[in-house]
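User: Hey, my collaborator sent me this sequence without any context and asked if I could get a structure. I don't really work with proteins. Can you help?
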Amino acid sequence: MPRRKCGLCEKSAILKRPKTGDTLCKECFFWSFEEEIHHTIVSAELFTRGETIAIGASGGKDSTVLAYVMKLLNERYDYGLNLLLVSIDEGITGYRDDSLETVKRNEQQYDMPLKIVSYRELYGWTMDSIVEAVGRKNNCTFCGVFRRNALDRGAVLVKADKIVTGHNADDIAETVIMNILRGDIARLRRCTSVSTGSEGMLPRSKPFKYTYEKEIVMYAYFKKLDYFSTECVYSPYAYRGYARALIKDLESIRPSTIIDIIHSGESLTVKKDVKMPVQGRCTRCGYISSQSVCKACVLLEGLNKGLPKLGIGKTHKVRRLAGLSENDSLSDSSTKQIPEF
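Assistant: No problem. I've predicted the 3D structure and written it out in structure-token form, which is a compact way to encode the shape of the chain:
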């Protein structure tokens, strides 16, 4: 049986793109993949010449491909960006300590400076110790909040102008579904934004917003990139996993499910009576927050007070657990002072 030809150059095709269904040879797949990301960057005007960009690097497939493609496009199209890697050590034995070795190799392979910041140095806790205190049910809430805060801090340390992360189309679709299931209508539209952050804050961008996870894996495989593929030991207990399973089931019936979900979030019109979160700065640590005291500081206070569920759940429940009135703010006295940078 004759091999199918590439839809772009007539060479023998070696793959069928999950995103478009096109049959392509290896070289045409590389070019199409890279050009689509370039289009996202240019159309959304994500960067300005001369900026220092911190790439959130975990050693996994998404961030490794992101670092590789950002370097390639920066050189191909002369973006004029100063690229560097910022990695977070959550303190997960047998997982993060191994993946950081991959990041260190990427530092050499891509010739990019690397800055590693850890939960222990920032918060006085590791994820292993947090799981001991809170159990496995809500541990991903702590990790997600602390990792976002830590990435901001790492980017400030290296004097970055912006942060880019490897969040892909699958991740964004999952977040849309999670917000729907939680009834968090106010965040539905914002979670699909290709860039977040306003003037005076550290913007975050997602060049992979329309890039399917399957294609990232294919790109990394055919490029023979060096990445860490072991799943986090705590992730099987994450709520996100249920949203992922739902989307995969829907995708088997309707292949365009992922992009359809993203477009639904983009086109959402929020009612006037729905209070939209407004990004400001935490009064305690000074980093981005839609509340007067950011989630990271609330969770950290709960850990240090021996109240690990402080910050988990609805606001009124949190305040009742902490013994606060609606007009009270969280006290500073019981919280480990987070160093300013």
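In plain terms: Residues 139-157 form the longest helix (19 residues). You can pass these tokens on to your collaborator as they are.
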